[in-house]
Amino acid sequence: MSRGFKSLTPADKAVAEFLSKLSHKPPVVEVPLGEALGRYLARDIIADVDVPPFDRAAFDGYAVRSIDTLGATRTNPVVLKVVGRAGPGRPFEGVVREGEAVEIATGAPLPEGADAVVPYEEAAERGGAVEIYRPVPRYYYVSRRGEDLSKGELVLKAGTRLRPWDLGVLASLGMSRVPIYLVRAAVISTGDELVEVEEVSGGAPPPGKVVNSTRFALIGLFREAGADAEYLGLVPDDEEAIRRALERALSGFDIVATTGGASVGGPDATHKAVSSIADFYVRGIAVRPGRPNGAAVVGGKPVIVLSGFPVAAVVGFEIFARPAILKMVGGRPEPQPTVRGVLTRRITTPINVRTYARVRAYVKEGKVYVEPLAVTGSGVLSTLTRGNAILVVPENREGYDEGEEVEVQLIRELEAV
Amino acid sequence: MSRGFKSLTPADKAVAEFLSKLSHKPPVVEVPLGEALGRYLARDIIADVDVPPFDRAAFDGYAVRSIDTLGATRTNPVVLKVVGRAGPGRPFEGVVREGEAVEIATGAPLPEGADAVVPYEEAAERGGAVEIYRPVPRYYYVSRRGEDLSKGELVLKAGTRLRPWDLGVLASLGMSRVPIYLVRAAVISTGDELVEVEEVSGGAPPPGKVVNSTRFALIGLFREAGADAEYLGLVPDDEEAIRRALERALSGFDIVATTGGASVGGPDATHKAVSSIADFYVRGIAVRPGRPNGAAVVGGKPVIVLSGFPVAAVVGFEIFARPAILKMVGGRPEPQPTVRGVLTRRITTPINVRTYARVRAYVKEGKVYVEPLAVTGSGVLSTLTRGNAILVVPENREGYDEGEEVEVQLIRELEAV
């Protein structure tokens, strides 16, 4: 080829090199527990108390001494005297002695002397006494102190992305504040053809101009990935202006993504600006769409240089930005929804290039089908709204045949036709 | 059974009846596009402009009249005069005439007269002229006006949960604000055994008390489901106090969830309060954990009555609250990450009860295994942090055998051992 990239770097190689050069860690901040959802935990959490803090009933019934129930049957029940009631937050303050029982609700502390709970189903109370219909072993239907979390135990590892139940576990440990990594992401757009949506509201853009849609996709991706994301605005296609914008962004953010100005043959002011400040820079990736995407490291921080075309930028985010965030916080990739289905027609892709094909996955008569969407360019964002899944064709394949079963990543629910 | 629920309602039946009684719609508000991430679109979006708004180059190269390239080969190239350059936002203002070409960058408007793009790879420019090495058809490497979105087309359906690329598509249409359903969720906790984490910070709870962890799990689940969620505080185990709290919540929120006070045999003040105001109320669900969970409808709005035990509450949220939100906004369930693996030991569950078993899924020597976690009660939240997946055992099974292949829902990444 006379112009364009002289050679393309395989995606895995580009990512591995890029990640190995990253040394920045985002700041650690303590936030109230309720604000930690979706954030990355900044240190290992070791239980410093037992949860539950006492033995408690795991079922509604009667707290008893298990030894008293020996030999009980439905025809020959053991009869115990009911000496009190216990509820959660309303413990029975006395002691359960030989021949005695306490009616107990799930969650209530097990009274002193008792060591098991007989469920209502195996008992019947009549006039101050309860018939027990079966023998129960020690700790039957008892949640032991420390059973949920025991003191000294590693509860959650640093880098864990906090889900709703994790917050519950941290609350159980008495933590009202939690240390998280505050990942601050900045997005800078370039492209003299761009106009902001706020300036065209309701109408069509001026002749020759297109709306900057990529910024919204990127800000959304950063937020979904657990980062705070801020849009820093549209910078002219000018190397010096872009360099200044990058330097400003790098001083206050943990990861910076640019869009536009990365192409070969077209406007490449972003590329030149990044080149002039980068300690490491890989670009020209063997990925379709998204060949012009690149990733740089400046002072240990990641700078993701993305195509101005929205679909190419989304692919570049997945390849470089998400792994960079996980590397910085010590996080692990989240599981993705996938489905297997039969291709409705052949899909042809170039060898030695990883292709992200947009597809429509649907169920028909109980069987899943995958239909490739026709695409001409990397700008056709509607393939992500018309389609509902991505088929990643690896470098060592030239596509898949009609009728072949493939696994796709669902970005929206499966359609039913 | 002498106490407890007289009969249990199958989960599907309970949910279907509950949903059929819901008539409330959350308010529709217009928010700036950047704030719409993860919200539910409140109306169908029809394109009122073409995207792209003009024909443009889909590749870097030369804009030509396709007819001029007829018969071109590498040995016998067609030679065209280069009359200008076009970039995105920098259109070529003239007309491409017979024998002429314009160098063009991806995204630039196709100049008048030209109808195709010859990529750099198939051309070579020398001194003001370009050699073309192959014939190209009309619209070769041209993104046609309206190719991405065409005027009048249904772009996104009401009820769609907005993902990052959806925001990009809406921006392309010139929408700087977007109508979404604002789903306001309230959580009320009850339980005299509870103490708030803010009151025990750092230490263990007072004797007989446990920290209210369920509130954090629920608020987190509501937020992950696209709702605003507010915690309204701890209400004493008192029917009248709970009724007043419910009525206040129902006046300002679209969905209300309570925790605690729903059991049979234990404290049931919440149950009584809900009963006294509900138009519809189902409780006692054939689900484990989460039998005491229930769902009510008050003035068309959903009230989810959940167990105070965190894992039971999480299960109840999935059974009642998430479908209620989707019903109110016309949304569709999101795809869940799943994996198939081999059970490492038998799991036994009761017939006619749907069991949500917490499991650990891991990869060993390239094969996926599923290990059931030992659980005694519905309060053991750590099973959701120790485990990484849920195995739902349906009502018509009494479990699965060791060695059987099962599909589980991943709530965290697969472990590698």
Write up this protein.
2 copies of one chain form a homodimer. Chain A is elongated, with a radius of gyration of 31 Å. Helix content of chain A is 20%, strand content 32%. In chain A, the strands form 8 sheets. Chain A has a 6-stranded mixed beta sheet, with no helix packed on it. Chain A folds into 4 domains: 11-26 and 183-329, MoaB/Mog-like domain (Molybdenum Cofactor Biosythetic Enzyme, Chain A, 3-Layer(aba) Sandwich), CATH 3.40.980.10; 30-50 and 160-181, Molybdopterin biosynthesis moea protein, domain 2 (Alpha-Beta Complex), CATH 3.90.105.10; 56-143, Molybdopterin biosynthesis moea protein, domain 3 (Molybdopterin biosynthesis moeA protein, domain 3, Beta Complex); 338-416, Beta Barrel (Beta-clip), CATH 2.40.340. In chain A, a hairpin with a 2-residue loop joins β21 (294-298) and β22. Chain A has helices at 11-21, 164-172, 197-200, 214-224, 239-252, 269-277, 310-329, 382-386; strands at 28-32, 40-41, 45-46, 56-57, 61-64, 78-86, 100-104, 116-119, 123-126, 129-132, 142-143, 154-156, 177-181, 184-190, 194-195, 210-211, 228-235, 255-259, 280-283, 287-288, 294-298, 301-306, 338-343, 347-348, 354-364, 367-372, 389-393, 399-400, 405-410, 415-416. In chain A, α1 packs across α7, α4 runs parallel beside α7 (310-329) and α5 (239-252) crosses α6 (269-277). By secondary structure, chain A is α/β, with parallel strands linked by helices. Chains A and B meet through β9, β11, α2, α3 and β16 of A and β9, β11, α2, α3 and β16 of B. Chains A, B: This is Molybdenum cofactor synthesis domain protein.
